[in-house]
Amino acid sequence: MDTLKMQDGVSIFFKDWGPKDAQPIVFHHGWPLSADDWDTQMLYFLDKGFRVIAHDRRGHGRSTQTWDGNDMDTYAADMIALADALDLKNAVHIGHSTGGGEVARYVARSKPGRVAKAVLVSAVPPIMVKSDSNPGGLPIEVFDGLRAALAANRAQFYVDLPSGPFYGFNREGVKTIDGVVHNWWRQGMMGSAKAHYDCIKTFSETDFTEDLKAITVPVLVLHGTDDQIVPYKDAGPLSAKLLQNSTLKLYDGYPHGMLTVHADVLNPDLLAFIKS
């Protein structure tokens, strides 16, 4: 098992597949999942000749079940350490949901030559929670509800979310894919309840505005118009406006977890951007 130990003793699990001299693509997973959520993309891009890398964020998956350090600055610092250890150059960083926030913060702070391009998919930037400066955001009560559900019965909560709004299986005419729900539950239950609880605050209240403004590499912003987790009007288009060099693509009727249930559409779009 490949792991990298951070300065604070936390072990970060990662997968690193493909030729070491190929262009690397680094995948950043959403809450409360793991590197396994990217298996479809990793196999697809491995077949296209890329080096593909995905890690379990601290407190998630097979990484150390941390009770502290579950914040975006630490997540980005972990990625900086991993990029240094693997000597990643000219990499493309792709982040889904909370992972999109991690990508924004990491790319804004990355060393010269490390990053070629980035992709934000159904991502949380610029900021999710409603405030005086972000009147279009979601009320704090929404995130309080997530915390309450997690604390009360995490196992049931991790069934309800993927079988409902995460993949749009609660929409009329959309058939639930049981394996997808079970895999979401499996990944979620591998991680730390405390880290997942803390991460709700991290993904909802972290302001990525300055990170987005600081990024100079090309960034592709993808969002589904039926995203019930991160509503697209308050995320994708706003992020694209803040970025210096962005391309925005919206998918009509696609849910938050569109990378899984519509991989046949999104993977070729990702490839086209990477090769452009």
Automatic annotation (TrEMBL):
The keyword Protease does not apply. It comes from Terriglobus roseus. GO terms for molecular function: peroxidase activity. SUPFAM superfamilies: alpha/beta-Hydrolases (SSF53474). It holds the Pfam family Abhydrolase_1. Residues 24-258 form the AB hydrolase-1 domain. The lineage of its organism: Bacteria, Pseudomonadati, Acidobacteriota, Terriglobia, Terriglobales. This is Non-heme chloroperoxidase. Keywords: Oxidoreductase, Peroxidase. It comes from the Bacteria. InterPro entries: AB_hydrolase, AB_hydrolase_1, AB_hydrolase_fold. Belongs to the AB hydrolase superfamily. Bacterial non-heme haloperoxidase / perhydrolase family.
